[in-house]
Design brief:
Blueprint (H helix, E strand, L loop, with lengths): L1 H11 L2 H13 L19 H12 L1 H18 L1 H4 L6 E4 L2 E3 L23 H10 E4 L28 H4 L29 H37 L1 H15 L3 H11 L4 H12 L1 H14 L3 H8 L4 H38 L10 H10 L4 H28 L2 H4 L2
Helix pairs in contact: 3-16, 4-8, 4-16, 8-9, 8-11, 8-12, 8-14, 8-16, 12-14, 13-14, 14-15, 14-16, 15-16
Length: 406
C-alpha cells in the first residue's frame, strides 16, 4: 500500500521539482552553467509617500485639474507649431525647409527680399508649383497683423460673418485660396488687428513660465533664509526678522515705477524686481518648522555624534520643512501669475507688444464695443488660476498629517 501511494506522489509531482532534482544530481558530475540572477532595483515610494500620492489622487477635482493644466501648458510650450505665420514644413524642388526654426531669405523661393513673407501670393504660388507646405492650425503668431479683416480693428470672430463678408478683402474674394479656415480669427482680433487666440496661447505660456521661474527662485532663497533663521535662532533670528519687517514695508509698485522710468521693461528685469520681495513669503513657514524641530531628540543625537550644522539642516530638518513648502508652492505660483497680469494691466509689466493676458484685459477695458477681448482674457485667466487652486488644495490634502498617518 505504501508503494502505491509513493508512486502516485511521484507521478503528481510538478516537473519543476524533477528538473531541480536532476540539476542537483548533475551538479556533482558535470558543472551546470546557469546565468546568475541579477536583482533589479526599482525606485519605489516609501509607505508614507504612497499614502500621500493616494490622498492626492483621491481628490478627483485636483487630480483632473493637474492633468488639464499640464495638457494646456504642454500645448502652449509648442506654441510655434500651433499658432504661427510661417509654415511648419516646406517641400520645394525636392528640398525640405523648416521656416519655424530657420529664417530663410526670399531668394530661396525665387524672390529677392531678405526675409520671406509666406503669406505673399507670389511665394505661395511658387511653392505650390514646385512642392507643398504644411501650415499650423492657426496661421497667425502673437504679433501677426491680419490685413484682410472685414471690419476695422478690433474685428469680431470670423465665425460671426458670412463667407462673403469674411472674404471681401481678399484679392479673389470667395475664390481666394487664402480665404480658408486656417486664416480665421476664431476669437476675433485686438485693436491692432492681431489674432486674439494666438496671443492667448503665447500669453498663457509666458505667464506660466514667469510664475514657475519666480516661484522656484523665491523658494530657494526663502527656504535658505528661513532655515538659517530657525536653526541658529538667537541674534541671527532677531536681526533677520527686523530686516524682513523693514524689507517687506517697501512699496513694490513704487519701486517698479522708478525702475521702469530708468530701465526698459523686460522679462528678466521684471522677474528680478519681483524676486527681491517674493522670497519673503517662504521664510515664515520654513523658520517655524526649523524652530520646532531643532531641539528634537534625533537632532541632539546628531550633534552629540559630531555631525555638522549644515549637514543636520540639509539632511534631517529640511525634509520636514519641505512638506509645508510644497503645500505652499501652488498658491505662490498662483499669486505670481496674478501679479504679472496686474502689472501688465496697469502698463508696468512686459514690453509693449508682448503677448500678455493683462494687456488683453486692458484692451477689453478700453474697447467696450469689443466684448470678445475682455471675455477671452477673463476666461483664460480664471481657468488657469482655478486649476492651480484646485491642484493646491489636492497637494494640501496629500500632505495633511491627519490623512497621511492614520
Amino acid at each position: 500500500m505504501d508503494d502505491v501511494v509513493k508512486d502516485r506522489r511521484e507521478a503528481d509531482r510538478p516537473p519543476e521539482i524533477d528538473t531541480r532534482r536532476e540539476a542537483q544530481a548533475g551538479a556533482s558530475g558535470v558543472a551546470q552553467m546557469a546565468p546568475p540572477l541579477v536583482a533589479t532595483k526599482r525606485a519605489r515610494l516609501s509607505p508614507l509617500n504612497k499614502r500621500r500620492w493616494q490622498n492626492f489622487k483621491a481628490n478627483r477635482r485636483g487630480w483632473w485639474s493637474l492633468w488639464v493644466f499640464l495638457a494646456l501648458f504642454l500645448v502652449t510650450l509648442v506654441a510655434e507649431v500651433v499658432a504661427n505665420d510661417r509654415p511648419v514644413l516646406i517641400s520645394y524642388k525636392g528640398d525640405f525647409y523648416t521656416p519655424i526654426l530657420v529664417d530663410y531669405p526670399e531668394e530661396v523661393f525665387g524672390g529677392f527680399l531678405p526675409v520671406t513673407n509666406y503669406r505673399d501670393p507670389f511665394i505661395q504660388d511658387e511653392i505650390a508649383a514646385n512642392g507643398w507646405m504644411v501650415w499650423p492650425v492657426i496661421r497667425y503668431s502673437y504679433q501677426s497683423v491680419n490685413n484682410e479683416i472685414p471690419t476695422p480693428a478690433p474685428s469680431a470672430p470670423s465665425w460671426t460673418y458670412t463667407k462673403e463678408e469674411r472674404c471681401q478683402r481678399y484679392p479673389l474674394g470667395v475664390e481666394d485660396p487664402n480665404c480658408t479656415i486656417g486664416n480665421w480669427n476664431w476669437l476675433g482680433t485686438d485693436d491692432q488687428a492681431r489674432d486674439v487666440l494666438a496671443r492667448l496661447i503665447y500669453g498663457f505660456r509666458i505667464s506660466v513660465l514667469f510664475g514657475l521661474v519666480l516661484t522656484a527662485a523665491s523658494a530657494v532663497i526663502g527656504v535658505f533664509a528661513g532655515a538659517v533663521q530657525g536653526y541658529f535662532g538667537g541674534w541671527v533670528d532677531l536681526v533677520f526678522q527686523r530686516f524682513i519687517e523693514i524689507w517687506s514695508s517697501i512699496p513694490v509698485l513704487y519701486l517698479l515705477l522708478i525702475v521702469s522710468a530708468i530701465l526698459p521693461p523686460g522679462f528678466w528685469i521684471l522677474l528680478g524686481i519681483m524676486l527681491l520681495f517674493s522670497w519673503v513669503a517662504f521664510v515664515g513657514v520654513v523658520r517655524a518648522e526649523f524652530l520646532r524641530a531643532r531641539n528634537f531628540e534625533y537632532v541632539n543625537a546628531a550633534r552629540a555624534l559630531g555631525v555638522g550644522d549644515w549637514t543636520i539642516m540639509g539632511r534631517h530638518l529640511l525634509p520636514n520643512a519641505m512638506v509645508a513648502t510644497l503645500t505652499f508652492l501652488p498658491f505662490i505660483l498662483n499669486g505670481s501669475i496674478t501679479t504679472l497680469t496686474s502689472l501688465d494691466f496697469l502698463g508696468f509689466g512686459l514690453p509693449p507688444g508682448s503677448p500678455s493676458l493683462g494687456e488683453l484685459l486692458s484692451q477689453g477695458r478700453n474697447n467696450l464695443q469689443a466684448p470678445w477681448l475682455g471675455i477671452s482674457g477673463f476666461v483664460v485667466l480664471s481657468l488657469m488660476l482655478s486649476l492651480l487652486v484646485f491642484v493646491g488644495e489636492a497637494v494640501r490634502d496629500a500632505f495633511d498629517p491627519r490623512k497621511s498617518f492614520r
